[in-house]
Design a protein that fits this description.
Elements (H helix, E strand, L loop, with lengths): L1 H36 L8 H15 L7 H12 L3 E3 L12 H13 L5 H11 L7 H11 L7 E4 L1 H11 L2
Helix pairs in contact: 2-4, 3-4, 3-6, 4-5
């Protein structure tokens, strides 16, 4: 009887250690991912640099070389601030300022992806302060990136109003 209790306790300790170890590794990967995409509402750092470099490449070359994932990621990041997502998960933010929206429209004009006309049409409205189809823009880009967490379920009216006050008075 005593052996069974000891084996049971040891099994629980082993399962607990595996669970804690797995979650620590999972959280460590999450932190690295979050740091790599600058997931704060400061809109600075690497994602802004990616947009600027992609825009510069698009402007400086007759034939714009790009990867679909790069363009879809930019569309995804620029739509993240203006959506509410399932489970409140959003990774990567790019402020949809008039300047950034103009850059995205230019890039999309040089990168004829399947839904690029839809993105351009919506972004042309965004640059006027009319944030239309934000969920559809986000979810289309997110689907193309095989996203499975963070689907847009609504507009973030607070952030949209903040952007309108900042840029579109």
């Amino acid at each position: 009887m005593g052996k069974k209790i000891i084996i049971g306790v040891m099994s629980l300790i082993l399962v607990g250690a595996l669970f804690v170890g797995f979650n620590v590794l999972k959280d460590d990967k999450k932190v690295k991912l979050d740091e790599s995409v600058s997931s704060s509402l400061e809109y600075s750092g690497s994602i802004q640099e990616i947009l600027n470099k992609t825009y510069d490449r698009a402007k400086s070359s007759e034939k714009f070389e790009y990867k679909d994932e790069e363009i879809y990621s930019l569309v995804h990041w620029i739509s993240n601030p203006v959506i509410k997502s399932k489970k409140n998960k959003r990774i990567g933010f790019l402020e949809p300022s008039p300047e950034n929206v103009d850059k995205m429209i230019y890039i999309l004009g040089k990168a004829p992806l399947g839904p690029h006309k839809f993105f351009i049409k919506s972004l042309n409205e965004w640059k006027k302060g009319n944030f239309v189809e934000v969920e559809e823009v986000h979810n289309t880009a997110w689907k193309m990136l095989d996203g499975n967490v963070g689907r847009a379920i609504d507009r973030d009216e607070y952030e949209i109003n903040r952007l309108k006050e900042k840029y579109y008075k």
